[in-house]
């Protein structure tokens, strides 16, 4: 980013040859604006306008079909937070689920990917192949892979069969892992961890490779046990990376809901509902009910939450560095 | 010495176990795609009556060839749009000087924190008014706009790391700004462009949420919508679902295997930058 600080006006460093007709005779800023114009224009239509109209809509009631909006002030926000007897509990439950996911996924991701990266860094043979294999869940994440998970998690699916054949039949789920209210959310969390381990492992691996190998040698000469090296040397040096991984995980759970939509659609009985999924439902699946303003308001609450968490996280990041 | 051997063995076993976990759903996807309609209901992993019929039928009779072409079109246009629009903008952010440069740059990066769901409904409403809702262009425009933060970050970093002496040399030879951009910066930053292309192509190829709420005409379905139409039938035939999933996943895996280092560099670079 250092380049942004460089100050040199085009044309100042070198005396222009006389009699120029080239475009560099233009004032510099005009060229700059010409280059950013397409991006700004696209954003003006697809971003600024939509953000503005979305914000306005959050203060109105509308069903998407009537010609006018009914302005209701902050009523949508109040309804969502506590006033409405149906929506407020729904929001609280979805919020609780989202919170659980937000805490569990980054935590488990770190717990799995750090040892994995350390192990991967310690082997020479097969490292490249294993790294590619570990990375597959990231590149393919999406509808297709979620359906594959649904298939293996079915009542007669591969995971139940596997558990029974290992003599762990008590752990198998006759209703399927996604059909049982008490296992559905933990199952989704594990699938989310599965798809976020690749990037975390990759980041840790690149962090480990940047650590001076002399540090390990020095520690070994001093007679430090491997677990001490891990705790006293590696972990502190990787803390900034951990902070980034946690930040990404938190952001992804707040933003992403595709997995909830595809794998359970909030079910069974709302046990895997998430905030973004609730906004999606209010946006597109309420027919003629006037829920679009509510959907927008919920979207803005999510945005506020994302900004807040980012600030908190950035603060923690600064402290550990 | 033996203790060390044991540790190494444990490490290898752990690494292989996680490799198996990574591959687990893919293995079942492949197994399911090569099973027939009756065998899919049984539990076994290896198909007893190995058949290509499921794949060929999904590709042909279930119109997955058409969906494939639609996906290719949407992904291709999105990648093209992203490269054109944001390479120009990032060039301006990295090397040109104009009022509003810093503010605009940080503004584009800050968009990373706007949740997709906050934008989704207004985009759909706007596109309805503009009459592009349900068309492929109606998908491409918000997709391009959505990649702005990451792309601007990556490309501005890439252009910024090119020595400015090159630019000054080209200028003194009388090259115009467009010429410098085209003949100096674009070729030198080619790896960054490939990275941006793959990091755009993969999520676009997999995109499902906006596509689902905007496309209603089955002839415009992309692959994820085609897949979804298979599973929403009352009794999903999982062999067809897995065949369709395989059709979606294979191009991405091939792309990944050939361009692996661009994925890796891009992610590490984007997060550290």
TrEMBL record, chain A:
It is found in: Cell membrane. GO terms for cellular component: plasma membrane. CDD domains: TM_PBP2. It holds the Pfam family BPD_transp_1. Residues 95-313 form the ABC transmembrane type-1 domain. The keyword Secreted does not apply. The keyword Transferase does not apply. Its main location: membrane. It is a multi-pass membrane protein. Keywords: Cell membrane, Membrane, Transmembrane, Transmembrane helix, Transport. Residues 1-23 are annotated as: Disordered. The chain crosses the membrane at residues 30-52, 99-120, 132-152, 184-205, 233-250, 288-312. Coiled coil: none annotated. It comes from the Bacteria. Residues 1-18 have a biased composition (Basic and acidic residues). GO terms for biological process: transmembrane transport. InterPro entries: ABC_transporter_permease, MetI-like, MetI-like_sf. Belongs to the binding-protein-dependent transport system permease family. This is ABC transporter permease. It comes from Planotetraspora silvatica.
Automatic annotation (TrEMBL), chain B:
PROSITE patterns: ABC_TM1 (PS50928). The chain crosses the membrane at residues 7-27, 74-96, 103-125, 137-159, 241-259. It is found in: Cell membrane. It is a multi-pass membrane protein. Keywords: Cell membrane, Membrane, Transmembrane, Transmembrane helix, Transport. The keyword Transmembrane helix applies. Residues 68-259 form the ABC transmembrane type-1 domain. This is Sugar ABC transporter permease. It comes from Planotetraspora silvatica. The lineage of its organism: Bacteria, Bacillati, Actinomycetota, Actinomycetes, Streptosporangiales.
């Amino acid at each position: 980013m250092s380049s942004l600080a460089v100050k040199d006006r085009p044309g100042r460093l070198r005396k222009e040859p006389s009699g120029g007709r080239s475009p560099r005779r233009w004032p510099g800023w005009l060229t700059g604006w010409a280059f950013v114009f397409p991006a700004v224009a696209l954003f003006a239509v697809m971003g600024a306008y939509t953000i503005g109209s979305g914000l306005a809509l959050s203060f109105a009631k509308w069903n998407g079909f009537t010609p006018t909006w009914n302005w209701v002030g902050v009523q949508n926000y109040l309804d969502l937070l506590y006033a409405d007897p149906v929506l407020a509990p729904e929001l609280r439950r979805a919020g609780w689920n989202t919170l659980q996911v937000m805490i569990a996924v980054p935590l488990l991701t770190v717990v799995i990917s750090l040892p994995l990266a350390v192990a991967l860094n310690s082997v020479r043979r097969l490292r490249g192949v294993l790294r590619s294999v570990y990375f597959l869940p990231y590149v393919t994440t999406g509808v297709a892979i979620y359906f594959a998970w649904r298939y293996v998690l079915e009542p007669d699916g591969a995971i139940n069969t596997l558990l029974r054949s290992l003599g762990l039949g008590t752990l198998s789920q006759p209703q399927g892992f996604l059909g049982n209210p008490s296992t559905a959310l933990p199952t989704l969390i594990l699938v989310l961890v599965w798809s976020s381990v690749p990037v975390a492992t990759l980041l840790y691996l690149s962090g480990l490779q940047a650590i001076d190998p002399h540090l390990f040698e020095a520690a070994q000469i001093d007679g430090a046990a491997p677990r001490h090296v891990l705790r006293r040397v590696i972990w502190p040096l990787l803390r900034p990376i951990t902070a980034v991984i946690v930040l990404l995980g938190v952001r992804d759970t707040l933003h992403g809901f595709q997995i909830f939509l595809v794998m359970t659609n909030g079910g069974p009985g709302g046990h895997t509902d998430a905030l973004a999924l609730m906004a999606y439902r209010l946006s597109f699946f309420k027919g003629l009910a006037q829920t679009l303003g509510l959907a927008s308001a919920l979207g803005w609450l999510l945005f506020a939450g994302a900004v807040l968490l980012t600030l908190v996280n950035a603060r923690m990041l600064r402290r550990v560095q | 010495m033996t203790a060390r051997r044991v540790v190494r063995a444990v490490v290898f076993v752990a690494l292989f176990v996680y490799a198996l976990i990574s591959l687990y759903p893919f293995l079942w996807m492949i197994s399911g795609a090569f099973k027939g309609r009756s065998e899919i209901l049984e539990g076994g992993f290896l198909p007893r009556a190995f058949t290509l019929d499921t794949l060929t039928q999904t590709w042909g009779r279930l119109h997955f060839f058409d969906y494939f072409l639609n996906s290719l079109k949407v992904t291709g246009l999105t990648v093209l749009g992203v490269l054109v629009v944001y390479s120009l903008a990032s060039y301006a952010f990295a090397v040109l000087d104009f009022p509003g440069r810093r503010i605009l740059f940080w503004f584009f990066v800050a968009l990373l924190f706007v949740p997709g769901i906050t934008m989704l409904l207004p985009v759909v409403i706007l596109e309805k008014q503009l009459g592009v809702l349900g068309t492929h262009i109606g998908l491409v425009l918000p997709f391009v706009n959505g990649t702005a933060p990451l792309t601007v970050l990556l490309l501005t970093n890439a252009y910024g790391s090119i020595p400015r002496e090159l630019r000054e040399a080209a200028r003194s030879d009388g090259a115009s700004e467009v010429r410098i951009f085209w003949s100096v910066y674009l070729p030198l930053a080619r790896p960054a462009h490939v990275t941006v292309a793959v990091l755009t192509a993969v999520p676009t190829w997999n995109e499902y949420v906006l596509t689902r709420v905007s496309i209603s005409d089955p002839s415009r379905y992309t692959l994820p919508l085609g897949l979804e139409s298979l599973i929403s039938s009352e009794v999903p035939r999982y062999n067809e679902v897995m065949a369709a999933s395989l059709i979606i996943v294979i191009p991405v895996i091939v792309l990944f295997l050939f361009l692996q280092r661009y994925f890796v560099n891009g992610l590490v670079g984007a997060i550290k930058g």
